[in-house]
């Protein structure tokens, strides 16, 4: 596979990833390598304010390339604890390191925990394999 | 070639001036008597200081770094880049048109009002509509005003309709306009033939439908052959039909939006009627409506009483104003000149030749590039460079490679429903040699992509600047020059 | 047949082209149009004309208009008779500029892209603000777009609008704003002819939904508004200051940047564009840096090419309709680029000294005319405030009749104010630009004296 899909996190069919940080009891959210590749060079990201609450499926951030704009939907309902401010200055981190320095927000899940339907790395790999087939 | 082309600010030299004005001949008053201190500008007015020669050389040099229809072929799909007759420019510059003040009064510009009146009669006949406003100065401006009229009409009947249907092949201005009017966009997927699917349409029509916005022929260059059924369905549901006139150049003298059932029409004089696009504008987007919507047009409209022409402001149901004065009058003068010279047969032949040129090109190119929707097309067609993309160079690269042939590329990546789209509109003013040259260029580029896609990805090579970095421009926006500190 | 000189396909070539894809006739290409709507007759248009005939017809129509080369103009009210240097038309009529489309292909459009980048800079320098777009339709729609921007930026839905703003602009504003649920509320003028800023501040403080205060300065009556520290107080209320300004006045008057406006808009016609019965003109819009991504329309930005050379492209396009579609900042596509180029060429020719000269002459000549006219019995200045190039006076009879009389003496007279301002009967708005000579002003005064 051309795109990296780390095993240590979960995925949505909208190409977001979600990783549970047990220590902090938060969920870190970002976009996948596949998503950033399809989007091309990211030039701007509109980030939410920390402290804000966000609902499952609601737009969490807006990511722009030169010729496209996509919403990043929140895969979880909760309170935004932190956002990755570094992306404002360096949106290219979303391209260079989507699973690391390109993280978008840390969300403290509400109680009861509401999340999108989450896929394993294998499940997500199957999804994009199917998507690529359709294109041919 | 390596030095940056200087900005006008970098040519600034103290003491130089490029103007010549007489001294002020009224008795002068001290400035402080006329303007109190707190009203005065304190900051330096940092405009460049240049002689007239400097300014002339600067803009002449800039013009040589630009490409217009006069420079060569310009097959930009959906933009109808036909030749702009020179006579139009002369006529619009006559003092009787260029040097009249919009508020000087009806009796003082009877000729201008007569021209607007005559033009309205021509456009009514060409499109089958009842009345026109010239206040709308661009296609998108026409769309906005058209929707304001449609909403006012529904309101006048005590109906609240706030959903506008748009095919997924539509120009971006359509959905953007809908949002500007506070309505909701409902996007209709096109069927496998690239047309509006009447069953899908029917399923989405209801008491909330305000209008369906349609371009016909559509942005794929295909005629919506079910238009009468579409019109019936929309009207039965209580909605109205809006015609985006971007593609009228395909059908002049063959059929009319009014006869298809459209209630509101905007035209693009800068496309169909030969007025120059001025590197982005000015355009003019006259708005035509049927009899039942006539009273909602922006005020004033042009009217005639016996031999006298006048601006009619007594329009109680009017949606109001959308532009100062009467729109881009100067552009209307040019388009009127064109229509008067072409006449009925000339306009029909323009459409005939535009459609022929498009079909000729489509046929020449169909074996090299993927054709997502089969012809015959109308005035334009869409190819897909998806096969080329797989080899490593896509529509955008092909466009850049065409620049090295001295040709303007087609519209790329639009409509959105075609992957790697190349949207080609040759127009009627091009001869066969030009079309053949374009075909040869596209063939050579396709062949080159087979053997050396990297070379195409690096194009253009012969332009004043090489490929420009749009990512850099968007990541670190520099939208003005600043003096080095 | 006329028009053939724009249609190069000759019959044999046409037949050859048709045959190349197996079509028998042109009609074959139109068979997808349902017969029920195929026109079976020729369009009923006036007979076509050859070029000399067309020229004669258009000259005939033009000759029926009284133009400002033959008449002396004291009319303004949003469209102004300033001198246009000869070089302006020569340069903007370089066909590489005027026959081009929007510069989507940057590598062969560096000319217009750089010219617009320079235009954006010139507008910033004139207004004292940080960023500007590549033009909007006109001064009216620019103000409306500015108001929409302010609502978007603040997340509020009401704007306060001075009654001193050009009535046509206020009408356009209503058309643009009310349909999307934004509320337009008027602020009245003081007896001095300035916007009642105390009232505006009171209302912005009381109503937290107030997105912006909209002012025009000099206002419709030619009176200069004095915002002082207005902007600071408005900002405390979370309200923005949006202004409409006369670019000709800015070399002299305090700039929007200096008095803290967030958005400055205006009509750019006066910068080298002919009057042309109201269009094409151009709207300009400048704003503070933080509003850059909310600007409507095209923006040109600087970048580098593959070999490192400086160049220009359309940038931040994700704001625009062709990408963001229903979420775009505006639906504008075609703008007034050639008019923006015209404005840039005009400013480049005039330079700082020329621009200040024009502004100074307008100020002096309008003051002289004001003094002379108001010395006539029955003519009184309506608003005592500080004026620039326009002023409103009461006249001794019907302004319409007065204008007919002036016309007989070769003068295009002032605007009758009563239509837009019923509270101002028998009032007229005069405009005096740098183009008017002392002799012309004296003639005007003499003719007025002779009327009734």
Helix-strand pattern of chain B, N to C?
A: HHHHHEHEHEHEHEHEEEEHEHHEEHHH
CATH top level label of the largest domain in chain C: Alpha Beta
The tally of strands of chain B reads: 12
> At the fourth CATH level, what is the homologous superfamily of the largest domain in chain C?
Type I PLP-dependent aspartate aminotransferase-like (Major domain)
Oligomer: heterotrimer
The H/E string of chain C reads HHEHHHEHEHEHEHEEEEEHHEEHEEEH
Residue share in β-strands of chain B? 5-15%
Low-confidence stretches of chain B: none
Number of helices of chain B: 16
Strands in their spatial order, largest beta sheet of chain B: 1-7-6-5-4-2-3
> What integer value in Å does the Rg of chain B equal?
25 Å
Notable traits:
heterotrimer; A: 136 residues; alpha+beta; OB fold (Dihydrolipoamide Acetyltransferase, E2P); six-stranded antiparallel beta sheet; three-stranded antiparallel beta sheet; 22% helix; B: 485 residues; alpha/beta; Aspartate Aminotransferase, domain 2; Aspartate Aminotransferase, domain 1; 3 domains; seven-stranded mixed beta sheet; 12 strands; 36% helix; 10% strand
Provide a descriptive summary of the structure in words.
The complex is a heterotrimer of chains A (136), B (485) and C (452). Chain A starts with 9 loop residues before the first strand and ends with a helix. Chain A has four helices and nine strands, in the order E-E-E-H-E-E-E-E-E-H-H-E-H. The longest helix of chain A is centred in the C-terminal third of the chain and has 15 residues, at 121-135. Chain A has 136 residues and is of the alpha+beta class. In chain A, a hairpin with a 4-residue loop joins strand 2 (16-21) and strand 3. Chain A is globular, with a radius of gyration of 14 Å. Chain B is α/β, with parallel strands linked by helices. Chain B has three domains: 8-63, no CATH class; 87-342, Type I PLP-dependent aspartate aminotransferase-like (Major domain) (Aspartate Aminotransferase, domain 2, 3-Layer(aba) Sandwich), CATH 3.40.640; 349-472, Aspartate Aminotransferase, domain 1 (Alpha-Beta Complex). Chain B has helices at residues 31-34, 52-63, 86-92, 95-98, 110-127, 139-156, 173-180, 198-204, 227-236, 257-260, 329-365, 386-391, 395-403, 432-451, 453-457, 470-475, and strands spanning 131-133, 163-167, 184-188, 209-214, 240-244, 264-266, 287-289, 301-305, 308-312, 381-384, 411-412, 421-424. The radius of gyration of chain B is 25 Å and the shape is globular. In chain C, strand 5 (210-217), helix 9 and strand 6 (240-245) form a beta-alpha-beta unit. Chain C has 452 residues and is of the alpha/beta class. Chains B and C meet through helix 2, helix 3, helix 4, helix 5 and helix 6 of B and helix 1, helix 2, helix 3, helix 4 and helix 5 of C.
């Amino acid at each position: 596979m051309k795109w990296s899909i780390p095993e240590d996190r979960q995925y949505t069919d909208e190409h977001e990833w979600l990783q549970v940080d047990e220590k902090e009891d938060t969920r870190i959210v970002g976009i996948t390598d596949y998503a950033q590749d399809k989007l091309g060079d990211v030039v701007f990201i509109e980030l939410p304010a920390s402290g804000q609450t966000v609902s499952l499926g609601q737009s969490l951030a807006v990511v722009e390339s030169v010729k496209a704009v996509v919403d990043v939907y929140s895969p979880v309902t909760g309170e935004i604890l932190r956002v990755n401010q570094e992306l404002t200055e360096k949106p290219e981190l979303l391209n260079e390191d989507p699973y690391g320095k390109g993280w978008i927000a840390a969300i403290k899940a509400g109680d009861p925990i509401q999340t999108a339907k989450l896929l394993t790395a294998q499940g997500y790999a199957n999804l994009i394999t199917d998507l690529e087939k359709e294109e041919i | 070639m390596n030095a940056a082309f200087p900005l006008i600010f970098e040519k600034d030299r103290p003491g130089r001036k490029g103007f010549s004005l007489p001294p002020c001949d009224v008795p002068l008053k001290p400035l402080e008597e006329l303007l109190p201190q707190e009203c005065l500008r304190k900051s330096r007015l940092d405009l460049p200081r240049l002689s007239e020669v400097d300014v002339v050389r600067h803009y002449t040099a800039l013009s040589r770094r630009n490409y217009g229809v006069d420079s060569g072929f310009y097959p930009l799909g959906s933009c109808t880049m036909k030749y702009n007759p020179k006579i139009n420019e002369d006529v619009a510059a006559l003092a009787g048109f260029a040097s009249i003040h919009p508020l000087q009064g009806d009796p003082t510009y009877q000729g201008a009002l007569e021209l607007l009146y005559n033009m309205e009669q021509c456009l009514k006949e060409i499109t089958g509509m009842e009345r026109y406003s010239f206040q709308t100065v661009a296609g998108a401006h026409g769309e906005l005003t058209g929707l304001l009229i449609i909403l006012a009409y529904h309101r006048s009947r005590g109906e609240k309709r706030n959903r506008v249907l748009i095919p997924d092949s539509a120009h971006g201005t359509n959905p953007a306009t809908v949002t500007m009017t506070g309505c909701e966009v409902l996007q209709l997927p096109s069927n496998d033939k690239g047309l509006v699917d009447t069953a899908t349409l029917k399923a989405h029509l209801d008491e909330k439908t305000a209008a369906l916005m349609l371009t016909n022929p559509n942005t794929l260059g295909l005629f919506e052959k079910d238009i009468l059924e579409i019109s019936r369905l929309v009207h039965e549901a209580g909605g109205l039909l809006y015609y985006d006139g971007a593609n009228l150049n395909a059908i002049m003298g063959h059929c009319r939006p009014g006869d298809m059932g459209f209630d509101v029409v905007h035209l693009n004089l800068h496309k169909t009627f030969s007025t120059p696009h001025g590197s982005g504008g000015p355009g003019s987007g006259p708005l035509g409506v049927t009899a039942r919507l006539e009273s909602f047009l922006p005020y004033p409209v042009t009217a005639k009483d016996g031999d006298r022409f006048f601006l009619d402001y007594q329009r109680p149901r009017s949606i109001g104003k959308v532009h100062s004065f009467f729109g881009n009058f100067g552009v209307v003068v040019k388009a009127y000149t064109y229509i008067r010279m072409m006449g009925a047969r000339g306009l029909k032949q323009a459409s005939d030749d535009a459609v022929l040129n498009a079909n000729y090109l489509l046929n020449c190119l169909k074996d090299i590039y993927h054709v997502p929707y089969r012809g015959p097309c109308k005035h334009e067609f869409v190819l897909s460079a998806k096969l080329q993309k797989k080899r490593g160079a896509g529509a955008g690269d092909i466009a850049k490679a065409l620049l090295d042939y001295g040709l303007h590329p087609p519209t790329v990546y639009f409509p959105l429903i075609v992957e790697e789209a190349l949207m080609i509109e040759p127009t009627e003013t091009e001869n066969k040699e030009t079309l053949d040259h374009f075909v040869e260029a596209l063939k050579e580029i396709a062949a080159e992509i087979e053997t050396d896609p990297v070379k195409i990805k690096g194009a253009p090579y012969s332009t004043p600047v090489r490929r420009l970095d749009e990512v850099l421009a968007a990541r670190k926006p520099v939208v003005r020059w600043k003096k080095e500190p | 047949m006329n028009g053939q000189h724009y249609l190069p396909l000759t019959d044999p070539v046409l037949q050859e082209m048709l045959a190349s894809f197996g079509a028998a006739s042109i009609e074959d290409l139109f068979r997808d149009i349902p017969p029920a709507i195929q026109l079976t007759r020729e369009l009923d248009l006036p007979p076509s004309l050859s070029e000399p005939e067309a020229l004669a017809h258009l000259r005939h129509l033009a000759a029926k208009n009284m133009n400002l080369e033959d008449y002396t103009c004291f009319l303004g009210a949003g469209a102004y008779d300033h001198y246009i240097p000869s070089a302006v038309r020569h340069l903007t009529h370089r066909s590489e500029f005027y026959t081009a489309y929007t510069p989507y292909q940057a590598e062969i459009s560096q000319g217009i892209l750089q010219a617009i980048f320079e235009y954006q800079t010139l507008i910033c320098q004139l207004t004292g603000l940080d960023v500007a777009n590549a033009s909007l339709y006109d001064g009216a729609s620019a103000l409306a777009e500015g108001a929409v921007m302010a609502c978007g930026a603040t997340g509020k839905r009401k704007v306060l609008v001075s009654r001193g703003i050009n009535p046509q602009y206020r009408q356009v504003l209503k058309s643009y704003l009310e349909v999307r649920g934004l509320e337009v509320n008027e602020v009245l003028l003081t007896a001095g002819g300035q916007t009642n800023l105390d009232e505006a501040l009171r209302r912005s403080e009381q109503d937290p939904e107030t997105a912006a205060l909209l002012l025009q300065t000099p206002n419709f009556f030619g009176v200069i508004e004095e915002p002082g520290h207005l902007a600071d107080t408005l900002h405390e209320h979370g309200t923005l200051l949006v202004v409409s300004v006369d670019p000709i006045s800015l070399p002299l008057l305090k700039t929007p940047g200096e008095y803290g406006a967030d958005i400055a808009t205006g009509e750019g016609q006066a910068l080298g564009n002919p009057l042309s019965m109201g269009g094409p003109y151009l709207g300009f819009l400048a704003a503070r840096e933080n509003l850059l991504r909310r600007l409507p329309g095209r923006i040109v930005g600087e970048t580098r090419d593959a070999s490192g050379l400086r160049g220009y492209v359309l940038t931040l396009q994700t704001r625009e309709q062709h990408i963001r579609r229903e979420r775009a900042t505006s639906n504008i596509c075609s703008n007034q680029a050639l008019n923006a180029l015209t404005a840039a060429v005009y400013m480049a020719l005039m330079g700082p000294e020329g621009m200040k000269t024009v502004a100074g002459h307008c100020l002096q000549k309008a003051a002289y005319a004001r003094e002379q006219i108001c010395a006539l019995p029955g003519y009184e200045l309506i608003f005592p405030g500080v004026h620039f190039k326009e002023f409103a006076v009461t006249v001794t009879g019907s302004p319409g009749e007065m204008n007919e009389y002036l016309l007989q003496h070769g003068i295009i007279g002032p605007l009758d104010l009563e239509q837009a301002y019923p509270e101002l009967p028998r009032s007229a708005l005069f405009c005096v630009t740098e183009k008017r000579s002392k002799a012309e002003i004296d003639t005007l005064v003499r003719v007025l004296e002779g009327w009734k």
